[in-house]
Amino acid sequence: MKMTKIYEGSYQWLMFGRDDNKPEKIIDTNQYVVRTGSRCLVIDPGGVELFAPMLAAVLHHAPVEEITDLFASHQDPDIISSLGLWDQALPNAKLHASGLWEGFIRHFGCETIEYVPIQDNGGVINLERVELQVIPAHYMHASANFNIYDPNAKILMSGDIGAALEEPGAPVFVDNFDEHVEKMRFFHQRWMPSNQAKRFWIDRVRDLDIDILAPQHGRMFKGDDVKRFLDWFDALQVGIAV
Amino acid sequence: MKKNQVKSQFVAVASIAAELSDVMNVAKEISLAAANAKAIAFRAGEKAKGFQPITDFINELAKDTINLVNSINLQAVKLYQLTVNEHKMTAASNQFSKVTSLTENAAYASSMNISQEQAEQRKMECRREFQSHVDQLLEQLASVMHPARAARVIAANSRIEASQAGEYLQSLQAVAESVDNAALVIHSNVQRCRTALSIINFSD
After folding, report:
1. ipTM, two decimals
2. Do the domain assignments include residue B24?
3. Looking at the domain assignment, is residue B129 inside a domain?
4. Which residues pair with B61 in a beta bridge?
5. Quick one: closest CA in A to B102, which residue?
6. Which residues of chain A, if any, have pLDDT below 70?
7. Does residue B40 lie within any of the structural domains?
8. Residues B169-184: pLDDT tens digits?
9. Are strands A2-8 and A155-159 parallel, antiparallel or unpaired?
10. In A, what residues contact B, Cβ < 8 A?
11. Is residue B116 part of a domain?
12. pLDDT tens, B130-162?
């Protein structure tokens, strides 16, 4: 599992992905970790196949008892089907996820972890002195869907928004936006169901100060590429299957 | 637990539930046959005097069987839950071993030790609890065999009594046949449950 540090201050943002041992037919995912002095948030911890390499990677940065928070942007298996194993491994942890999806996500196993339901209008996750904003991104693509925004690090973890299907071992940042577009187009047109929801999300996100837009699949966007992505996405017609 | 063992355990537990459901249906049929026999015996009056107490026995047997199967069903549900738990604990234990093998140089590798030990303990507890429930279930299944055997004896007596019932002979013989068949079905279904449980035990 490859680790890339994307923010370093009084706390860190770490990106994990590009696992060499990932089974061939499952989609590659990016996992993000926010590490403060004595706490650790794992954002979209991943599918059940990824549990062991992901936890092993996190143990380079934090002991299990300090992995105190998990966040699931939505209910898909590539996001959170590992929950049942985290549930056995973490002695004191909370899962922050949509209240709407609670009855579904619990199917993955959630006996010891405390489920903290996020209301539709979002909220905040406090990790010691770090305050992370939970931004609604409903229907993008799941009907209850959230992003994480860190106003201090200027990072928006955008879930499936900005995702691309890449070859194994692809770089972690977009280096040529125009070339990258084709890797994103069908994914967004097919998985995002609503132009109205897309407009609502773009209007909201344009008001945020973002240095890095970090999706759950493919490469991250940095600097001017964030605005390029928002402009491209703004012009894209989605929900093409009907 | 190996993958095939897990599969066979799930299949065995599910097949026990299916067999028990059949036994329950047959026991209800016996109960219906008893009510039917009682009505016939009442109409036959003096000619079926010997048959009348037998109908009460048949009814009691059906009730006993239904009660036993209800209780066994609860055990079977518990057994299924234990199978699921054991599967989960085994998966966690295997995954934690994998984490350990991947974290030789990790700064906080040893922090997994407690979780790993606990997962191993929970797995063993589940296995012990599962085996103890299998033993209890086998005992309960053996107890269902008693009413099934008694039903066959009653069926034989019913045939004798039916032969003295004149024009009601055919109706009462049909009752005897249905009780006898039901007892045979229960016997063979319960036997299959026991075999399925034995397979689980042997696969350990």
Report:
1. 0.89
2. yes
3. yes
4. none
5. A56
6. none
7. yes
8. 888 888 888 888 888 8
9. unpaired
10. 51-53, 55-56, 59-65, 84-85, 88-91, 109
11. yes
12. 889 888 888 888 888 887 888 888 888 888 888
